């Protein structure tokens, strides 16, 4: 707007007061006023003697004016700026600028919408997570409160029982004491008075078995105290695994699925690759191409979690496989082929088994991998089991029966085969 106004003023300043148009061959009088050369000449033509400036009426003895090239140049510029080509060009530039600003406005509106959506998502997600965390902790709190109440109740009952028994025995003893004291009195009296009748009455007193009290309760304070002074927290902690959701799954290997080069421990929790193939039973479930083995437990619903100890083994694949995977041929481990896996190569190159691989940059080398299979949300997630850092999560998890999967991979020449092991969290103590 400001520049527009400035343009208007300039045009006014460059307008001849006689013809009211832009100057043509502008000339300047001694009073510094400008006119078209022709206009001022015509204006003065019929005047006799001294002439005046049409604007300020200053008198000039002679008809003199100066050509002003500077003003002439400005007039040319202003005239050119109102030409058709110039106007069109300016219009084009304005249109382009308008379009640019329109698109910028659109961009900013979209960005604002996106930001607002993100804020909404964040808020909604936080509320959900808050509820989940609260529910998780509530379950643990309730469990602990119930456990505490139950242990205290047991202690109270046991204390009462002992007290009752000891009290009963005490009463028996008091009764017996009273009886004995009575006898003592009577006997003493008889002795003192030499009363023969009393002696007859107390003939049996000499047997010393008149008053009998049963043996008292065998309260052993050490046994009692050690029962409750045992590491209660430890016992409770082990029991807490019962309320974990999902609780740690007790997975083992299915020997019938193991490649003939794999050796399983007797408890089927550990697998190691052998340098030579072992004699094996033909089985349709067995992997014959790759050094793979499946878990003996299959899952089709619910949420399940287990851990695999990988130690310092430099090469492995592990995760979840569909029950229907092909055991006879060599296939790429990816969801399309029924595998949801995490893989390690060269000791530090971690990838998620996607198509193509998704390289993972891990800050530390996990010694234990936690595998979460959520059949309801069709999610397979991998964690560093030491601090539960999420390593990778598949959102297109298995549909149908799925099993734990482990591949030892073929050991590089000159390297010692190292085992992989399913960790059994302390559920076995329960
Ligand atoms: Zn003029
Ligand atoms: Zn003048």
UniProtKB/TrEMBL annotation:
Coiled-coil-forming residues are 112-190
Compartment(s) of residence = Cytoplasm
Name the SUPFAM superfamilies for this protein. Answer: Concanavalin A-like lectins/glucanases, RING/U-box
Q: Which residue intervals define the domain RING-type in the entry?
A: 16-57
InterPro entries on file: B30.2/SPRY, B30.2/SPRY_sf, Butyrophylin_SPRY, ConA-like_dom_sf, PRY, SPRY_dom, TRIM/RBCC, Znf_C3HC4_RING-type
Record SMART domains:
PRY (SM00589), RING (SM00184), SPRY (SM00449)
Q: Locate the B30.2/SPRY domain: which residues?
A: 231-427
**Which protein family is it in?**
Belongs to the TRIM/RBCC family.
Protein name from the UniProt record: Zinc-binding protein A33-like
Source organism of the structure? Coilia grayii (Gray's grenadier anchovy)
């Amino acid at each position: 707007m400001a520049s527009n106004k400035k343009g208007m003023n300039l045009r006014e300043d460059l307008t001849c007061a006689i013809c009211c148009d832009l100057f043509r061959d502008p000339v300047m009088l001694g009073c510094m006023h400008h006119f078209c050369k022709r206009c001022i000449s015509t204006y003065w033509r019929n005047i006799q003697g001294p002439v005046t400036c049409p604007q300020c009426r200053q008198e000039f003895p002679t008809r003199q004016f100066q050509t002003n090239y500077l003003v002439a140049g400005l007039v040319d510029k202003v005239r050119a700026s109102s030409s058709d080509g110039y106007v069109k060009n300016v219009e084009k530039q304005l249109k382009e600028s308008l379009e640019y600003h329109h698109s910028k406005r659109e961009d900013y509106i979209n960005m604002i919408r996106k930001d607002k959506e993100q804020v909404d998502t964040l808020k909604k997600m936080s509320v959900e997570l808050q509820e989940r965390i609260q529910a998780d902790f509530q379950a643990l709190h309730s469990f602990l409160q119930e456990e505490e109440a139950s242990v205290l109740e047991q202690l109270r009952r046991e204390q009462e029982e002992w007290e009752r028994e000891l009290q009963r025995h005490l009463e028996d003893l008091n009764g017996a004491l009273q009886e004995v004291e009575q006898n003592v009195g009577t006997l003493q009296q008889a002795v003192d008075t030499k009363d023969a009748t009393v002696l007859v009455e107390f003939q049996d007193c000499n047997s010393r078995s008149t008053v009998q009290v049963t043996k008292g309760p065998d309260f052993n304070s050490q046994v009692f105290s050690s029962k409750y002074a045992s590491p209660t927290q430890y016992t409770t902690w082990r029991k807490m695994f019962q309320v974990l959701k999902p609780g740690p799954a007790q997975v083992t290997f299915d020997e019938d699925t193991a490649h003939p080069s794999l050796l399983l421990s007797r408890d089927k929790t550990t697998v190691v690759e052998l340098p030579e193939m072992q004699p094996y039973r033909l089985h349709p479930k067995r992997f014959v191409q790759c050094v793979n083995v499946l878990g003996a437990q299959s899952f089709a619903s619910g949420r399940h979690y287990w851990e695999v100890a990988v130690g310092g083994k430099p090469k492995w694949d592990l995760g979840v496989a569909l029950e229907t995977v092909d055991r006879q041929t060599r296939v790429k481990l990816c969801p399309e082929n029924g595998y949801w896996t995490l893989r390690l190569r060269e000791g530090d190159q971690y990838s998620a088994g996607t198509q193509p691989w998704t390289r993972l940059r891990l800050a530390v080398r996990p010694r234990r991998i936690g595998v979460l299979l959520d059949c309801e949300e069709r999610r397979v997630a991998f964690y560093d089991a030491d601090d539960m850092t999420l390593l990778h999560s598949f959102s297109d998890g298995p549909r149908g029966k799925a099993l734990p999967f482990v591949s030892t991979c073929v050991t590089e020449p000159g390297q010692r085969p190292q085992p992989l092991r399913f960790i059994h969290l302390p559920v076995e103590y329960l």
